[in-house]
Design brief:
By secondary structure, this protein is mainly alpha-helical. The protein has a domain at 40-173. It has helices at residues 13-31, 34-39, 43-51, 53-66, 78-95, 114-131, 136-151, 155-168, 176-189, 193-204, 212-225, 229-242, 249-259, 269-278, and strands at residues 98-99, 110-111. It has a two-stranded parallel sheet with strand order 1-2. Helix 8 (155-168) runs antiparallel to helix 9 and helix 11 packs parallel to helix 13.
């Protein structure tokens, strides 16, 4: 008996279109839950701050290794700055240490719990500040004290740390955006949406802002939480207008759809009266 040969089925154009429609319907269903995302107070901002840490580390590397003369990082005493940088590097190794029961080979620091790592990281960062006050390394240690507190849900401690960092650095400091984003997250976590909005407004108005589109997305969420729908709409619309290539554009569009259509402005009374005067007379009007 001949063996039946199975022929692989290639989807037709109609089948492909149906599959795309199915995916679109699933995406719409997910978008319908956007209100739950809006109500997750502080979640996105904290996540955003944590995701930006690799970018912050890259900037720190350029500042320290390249000797960039930005604000607080200007090198005055090179030997002192080198010692402080080494201490900071050691503290940041702890901040980013692996959580594992099995210590990694190579002598890199590791911890069994997140809480243990946070405790040691805080001690090391405070040591950098205490021993190397006035250096760029000390300022960065202050920033990371905010990150560590935020990761532990200590919003009061995080807010204090970020405010201290912002008070230490100049208005043109390349890491100022990180302090503002962190402070916004801490304030949002405390329930202070207005304070978080103020900090994010400051962030998006910085020259050459990093992650301005992400800040605008957060502003949209926070304005909606405050009940200011038109301010939320304005922030979200800026993403599509100012950052057409942003990976966040689709999310902004979903949120705009969830807000509903913009209200149509009514004509001013005076304009309506003028229109009535200029309108041609009705054919049935008597002379």
């Amino acid at each position: 008996m001949a063996k039946k040969i199975k022929v692989k089925h290639e989807p037709t154009a109609e089948e492909k279109a149906a599959e795309e429609q199915k995916k679109a319907a699933e995406a719409a269903k997910a978008a319908a839950g956007i209100q739950d995302e809006f109500q997750a107070k502080g979640f996105e901002l904290v996540e955003w701050v944590q995701e930006r840490q690799s970018l912050i580390l890259a900037l720190i590397g350029l500042i320290i290794a390249g000797g960039l003369g930005y604000g607080v990082y200007t090198v005055v005493e090179r030997s002192r700055n080198t010692t402080a940088s080494a201490a900071l590097a050691g503290a940041l190794e702890v901040v980013n240490a692996e959580i594992t029961d099995t210590p990694p080979s190579g002598g890199d620091p590791s911890f069994k719990t997140v809480e243990e790592r946070a405790k040691v990281a805080k001690e090391r960062l405070l040591a950098v500040k205490g021993e190397h006050g006035g250096t760029g390394a000390a300022a960065i240690a202050q920033l990371y004290l905010g990150h560590v507190a935020l990761s532990q849900g200590d919003h009061d401690g995080a807010a204090q740390a970020y405010q201290a960092f912002l008070g230490e650095v100049s208005a043109s400091d390349p890491l100022r955006f990180a302090g503002l984003a962190g402070l916004a997250a801490a304030l949002d976590g405390k329930g202070d949406s207005k304070g978080a909005i103020a900090r994010l407004d400051e962030l998006v108005n910085l020259p050459d802002t990093i992650d301005e589109d992400a800040a605008l997305l957060e502003l949209g969420r926070l304005h909606q939480l405050e009940g200011n729908i038109e301010a939320a709409r304005a922030a979200l619309e800026r993403i599509g207008k100012d950052f057409p290539e942003s990976s966040l554009k689709s999310r902004a569009e979903q949120r705009l759809a969830a807000l509903g259509p913009a209200p149509v402005a009514a004509a001013p009374p005076d304009a309506q009266k003028l229109d009535d005067k200029l309108a041609p007379p009705s054919p049935s009007a008597t002379p």
